[in-house]
Amino acid sequence: MAAATGAEQARFNAPMILSRWPILVGILVLAAPTVASLAKQVWSTEAGAHGPIVLATGLWLLSRQFSELRAGAAQGSTWLTGLMSIASLALYVGGRAYDFISLETAGLYGFCLACLHAFVGVRPLIRNWFPLLYLGLIVPPPGWAMDSLTAPLKEFASYAATTVLGTFGVPIIREGVTLQVAAYQLLVEDACSGMNSLVGLIAISLFYIYLLRGASWRYSLLLLTMVIPIAIAANIIRVMTLVLLTYFFGDAVAQGFLHMAAGLFLFATALGLVFAIDNVLAALLKPRPSR
Questions:
Q1: Segments making up each domain of the chain, as ranges
Q2: Closest C-alpha to 262, from 236, 232, 227, 226
Q3: What's the order of all strands across the beta sheet hosting 172-175?
Q4: What are the residue numbers of the active site?
Q5: Measured distance CA(182)–CA(93) in Å, rounded
Q6: pTM for the full predicted model
Q7: Rounded Cα–Cα distance for residues 239 and 274 (Å)
Q8: Are 19 and 10 in contact (CB under 8 A)?
Q9: At what angle do helices 101-120 and 21-41 cross, to 10 degrees?
Q10: Is residue 273 classed exposed, middle or buried when 0-12, 13-18 and 19+ CB atoms within 10 A define those classes?
């Protein structure tokens, strides 16, 4: 594509952005209650703890692409901007009215994309797709989707932990996602299904791949497919660790500080495995930059 003219570049610079201050104020007015709701409902839980990190690092990545966005800036299609804005605001209002945080956040995300499209057009957004896609991870998945995914993963984690520990002589019995070890009864919760670790690992791995490797989407997808079994295996080990702590030291010890410490340690271990696999793949495949 030919380089943008000086007039086209001038459309997306600091004075131009400041001249659109009503739009910026509107985004802030919409974003403030949504961020507050996310902090209260999602980011304070283990499943959404990655949210603030994704938001901060995603905005930072987008700021790094400012010069590229400006270089190819052109007036976005008015009808497309309007269509995106109407659809996004409808999602936002519906999610806000019915306290559906997934729809509300998706609506805010879509409206921000519509405003950015109005400033720079379609092509710069496509060329700088990664920060925009990465920021989309702040949209929490619907509860029904998480429930449908965590249920079989909890069953599998319970089965695998029972099978392995039973092989080594630990007196453990499983009934669904309830484990009976000695005189203690443990319930495998959503946090031990692997989904929480999976979402966080995907977010951090994407950021790592893009920042350090600048790799193509094919290489990124290859590495991310390996994140899934790593996250599930880490949570099976977490379940077994908590069972052993309960069996040898009692329920008070297993459900105290060591419960959270085990989760953090295994997440860090899983992340280390992702980095190690990336180093091996990078040496074997030598991934090419996406730009």
A1: 6-140, 144-285
A2: 236
A3: 172-175, 178-181, 184-187
A4: 192, 238
A5: 52
A6: 0.75
A7: 21
A8: no
A9: 150
A10: middle
